[in-house]
Amino acid sequence: MKKFLLITFIFIAIIANAQLKVLSNGEVRLWTNTAGQWDQSFVTFTNEPLSKAYIVQRGNDQNFFVRGDGFIYARGVYINSDARIKTNVQSLTDINRLLKLRPISYNFVDSSNSETSLRLKKAPGDSLIYTSDKNILKQYGFIAQELSCFFPELVNSDENGLLRVNYIEFVPLLLAAIQKQQSEIDELKEMIANCCHPDIKSINSSSLTPLNLHDNLSEHARLYENVPNPFSVNTRIEYEIPSNVYSANLIIYNLQGSEIKSFAINQMGSGFVMIQAYEFKAGMYFYSLLIDNKIIDTKRMVLTNK
Known about the structure:
Elements: H1 2-17, E1 18-22, E2 28-32, E3 52-58, E4 61-67, E5 72-74, E6 104-106, E7 118-123, E8 126-130, E9 139-141, H2 144-147, E10 155-157, E11 163-165, H3 170-196, E12 222-223, E13 234-241, E14 248-253, E15 259-264, E16 269-276, E17 283-291, E18 294-303
Antiparallel strand pairs: 1-2, 3-4, 4-5, 6-9, 7-8, 10-11, 12-13, 13-16, 14-15, 14-17, 17-18
């Protein structure tokens, strides 16, 4: 009698709050009808961090699954971005806030150590441990509390008060920052060309690429990126100069376009110049290779504090 009542109760509960169907091919389908609050409609528990809680499989390929430690694996993600579903579209200009952020590396709290586990109260008499596998790889990101001071629109919290970050939205912010930086670099190149080398005022920044300014050197002259870059002790700038030139110099400029140091190059062919950090203040600099008073190329280097 008790078994009958229990089965009857379960059957009524399923009919009242959910629909469960087992198909002839073995598939199980489940959906709910007002089964309670949205966060309790469907819950999956796993015993191990690497256990797969939900799997979408086609043939032998598991194309999508969620692990017990909270990691999601998929082949790709598309987010709605059609112009027809957007309003108040504005170009990003205020990206200086990005420079104030503190990127960090971190590991999630290990649940195997009860003293260091992060326990969050979910309800009276209940608790939730937010953790992950202790063998997980190092993570990179931000502290949500710090990020909320500069980009509060990218931070929210769950029902337990745990802060979350929308990292996807950083992509357009970073692109806007790169575009702004490139624009400033182009302006500085033009400033260097027009201010410091009056004989080539007609050359714009877009032509300050290797060899466009000196066609007869187009097959030989080269200026390479300094290594390492950024640097804190010293850095090496390599070059290639053909033997049929009259003079060659490597010039260092500050961000204002003023020349701060010049190296006369007497050895033609392949060579290098060593830049010592103690000769400059930390910051960004430009260096140009001049051959017969013509700029062959201009590149950027960054000196950091030790």
